[in-house]
Amino acid sequence: MKNKTVIATNHLSIGYSSKNSKTVIAQNINLSFESGKLIALIGANGIGKSTLLRTLTGIQKPLSGEIELNQKPLQAYTALELAQNLSVVLTEKLPPSNLTVYELVALGRQPYTNWVGKLTSVDQEKIANAIALTAIQEIVHKKHFEISDGQFQKVLIARALAQDTPLIILDEPTTHLDLHHKVSLFKLLKKLAQETHKCILFSTHDIDLAIQLSDEMIVMTQKQFIQDQPCNLIEKGVFNSLFQDEDITFDAQKGKFVFK
Ligand SMILES: Nc1ncnc2c1ncn2[C@@H]1O[C@H](COP(=O)(O)OP(=O)(O)OP(=O)(O)O)[C@@H](O)[C@H]1O
């Protein structure tokens, strides 16, 4: 299947504005993401990763510039159309509820169900598919608060898969996970990008893992955004500019950070 551009930005400027002030977090952002790719967004704490992801998902308005989702300006989408084209996995806890894992995954079908919220056979098939792809069959009858953090992350990804959108955006999906669960979640995202041909964009602080498992990375620094394949970024020495700390350097041979 041919890769096509799912989302692209043109001279995008992101930040926060109120009545009296405007804070620019980053500007002149020109990025483009294709279907079938797993793309990691990395950068130091507070650099603006969440701000960028919130802007790309339409949760937050750009200060200026354009975002095109499937060749159409993001602001031209209705809320329902947006939910059919883009799913978001955030790290926030859910509001208190008694939902089972199955019901939570089924919520992904909301943009397609009628006003009574009845699931059609197509909806049920998409839910079953999402559950199978994320391998959470054994916990579908549990309440969502009866599962571990790692399982919960998978459930949120299953909900995004059930929503069946060409683009999935995740903000730090591996936070709070141990190494084993981080690796398995990264591999799951990689498999999903390959098998479902979706574009999966996520932010992370697990840079070593992102280098090994993502198709492309976006390195965000005070000065610039660099988007490329991990091996090219290593070759260009980009990772050394990530942290303003002489004690942390990137070992290009080992493909990981080393500390003094
Ligand atoms: N609601 C807000 N109003 C004003 N400034 C904000 C707001 N939210 C975040 N910021 C500021 O925007 C900058 C970028 O924050 P953001 O959360 O996007 O960074 P991040 O790269 O995701 O950080 P981290 O890796 O620590 O999660 C920070 O300086 C932060 O203080």
From TrEMBL:
Swiss-Prot/TrEMBL keywords = ATP-binding, Cell membrane, Ion transport, Iron, Iron transport, Membrane, Nucleotide-binding, Transport
Organism (species): Flavobacterium amnicola
For membrane topology, the record states: Peripheral membrane protein
UniProt GO molecular function: ATP binding; ATP hydrolysis activity
Q: Which SUPFAM superfamilies does this entry report, sorted A to Z?
A: P-loop containing nucleoside triphosphate hydrolases
**Quick check: keyword Iron in the entry?**
yes
The name under which this protein is listed is: ABC transporter ATP-binding protein
Q: Which GO terms describe its cellular component?
A: plasma membrane
